[in-house]
Amino acid sequence: MEHATRESVQQAANILQSRPYTVALAGAGMSKESGIPTFRGSGGLWTENGEPPLDQYQQFQRDPKRWWEERSNNSLGDFAQKIDSAQPNPGHFALAKMEEMGILRHLITQNIDDLHRRAGHQSLTEIHGNRNWMRCISCGFRISQRDFTYDPNVLPVYCDEDGCDGIIKSDTVMFGEPIPPQALNSSSMHSDLSDVFLTIGTSALVYPAAAFPVEAIQRGKILIEINPEPTQLTEHATIAIGAESGQVLPLLVEMISELDE
User: Fold this and answer.
1) Fewer beta carbons within 10 angstroms: which end of the chain, N or C?
2) CATH number for the segment(s) 3-260
3) What pLDDT score was predicted for residue 83?
4) What is the set of active-site residues?
């Protein structure tokens, strides 16, 4: 790591060591470091295969039975197999350690791959959902696929929570689907409370998630960006660290630990 980059990490450590209310937004760059292709950009899933239809959620609403039938019959594609075989990287574990140390109060992730949970993160909003979970589109009830059972002869699947008969779908947010209110409210609440905002491996182009660091800038909060490539946030960041999260975050934990001694 270059000397200037280490100096930037040290500056970030000096800020975070006093434990200001810190919230992070993690994006596809973190997953890419675990071998998961991004959706956009060179070699991205949608770049290679085209984006899903913009009315994907509306199609689901019109014919949820067909969606369930296709889901039951489809085998795992190459992208899904890569997600399932991926493992949390040092950046994921470092974020979980920062939470344990009382440095990171909340993590908003745009990633659907479950790697933050598997790394041990607790205070977490998966704003685009989690591919290993299911969700009711009416009441918002979420359940891990490990605990989810259904009769494949009775489709679509309906929610059995008290007083609800909403339709169950995958937890991942489809094109055209609103962000679940619970996820949006949690993200907004923690962002509003933050003194410091971290962006990690995200281009900050996809809204509404991208609005949170932008609002932090507008409110004069400290913004620390960790991303190997410049983004629209870079020129506005208090500290911009141009390196991968798997390198930066473990070093950040190490430097804060040294300051704590």
Assistant:
1) C
2) 3.40.50.1220
3) 84
4) 128
